[in-house]
Amino acid sequence: MDSNPSSAETAQGSIYVSSAVTNAAKILVVGHFAVGKTTLIGSLSEITPLRTEEKMTQASVHVDDLRGVTGKTTTTVALDFGRLTLSEDLVLYLFGTPGQQRFMQLWEDMARGALGALLLVDPARLEETFPVIDLVEGYGLEYAIAVNTFNPSDTYGEAEVREALDLLPDTPVVYCDARDQRSSAQALIALVRHLLERAA
User: Fold this and answer.
1) pLDDT digits over 72-124, tens only?
2) Distances (CA, A) of 32 to 65, 89, 118, 125, 137
3) What is the distance between the alpha carbons of residues 38 and 50, in angstroms, rounded to a whole number?
């Protein structure tokens, strides 16, 4: 038997976690419907992310509010999953939650064991964030706010966002473009720093 890995095995080697990894952390990526959770996980994940997206049909017209949303044809119906290796012995697992109220029962399992949540916000639809904040706080999760600046003209200043969402003074507020890896990584770093400060 040939001991050399095939080219296919070599190409897929990165789908496996290194045997040197001894620690794993779970982070939720949350937010209201159509705020960019799937996009952010896709921009960060070192593996092809697991996505449970389905095409939106006429049946969802009176259920999913598409006001202020353009070009959206699919929606997450269970979860998004990605992975990011932070060091030789630490890997981060990213779980994206569905944004619609009818899928909120999935949150309980996903919140179990999570260190915290990166809460994505669309500045043009801030009012839709309140139910998500209630859920995150209800599960006792620390979180950071990431204002997704898909449309820079809709962006508000940090003080305005804090006031609109009635945030605690130590809740981090950062701005990101979920399509951009570096920008998304900075938002994730802000959450991790917050978690470390709270744990100190």
Assistant:
1) 455 544 589 999 998 889 899 999 988 656 666 777 888 999 999 999 999 98
2) 11, 33, 12, 9, 15
3) 10
Q: In a 10 Å sphere around its CB, with 0-12 CB exposed, 13-18 middle and 19+ buried, how is residue 58 labelled?
A: exposed
Residue 22 main-chain phi, psi, to 5 deg = -120, -10
Q: Give how far Cα 157 sits from Cα of 78, 127, 163, 169, Å.
A: 33, 16, 10, 15
CA angle 16, 17, 19 (to 5 degrees): 115
3-class SS of residue 19 = coil
Q: Which amino acid is at 116?
A: G
Question: Amino acid identity of 39?
Answer: T
Question: What is the rounded CA–CA span in Å between residue 117 and residue 136?
Answer: 7
In order, the DSSP letters of 95-128 are: EEPP-SGGGGGGHHHHHTT--EEEEEE-GGGGGG
Query: CA 78 to CA 54: how far, in whole Å?
Result: 10
Residues of the chain with pLDDT under 70: 1-14, 51-78, 99-104, 153
Whose tokens are 């820079």? That residue is 152
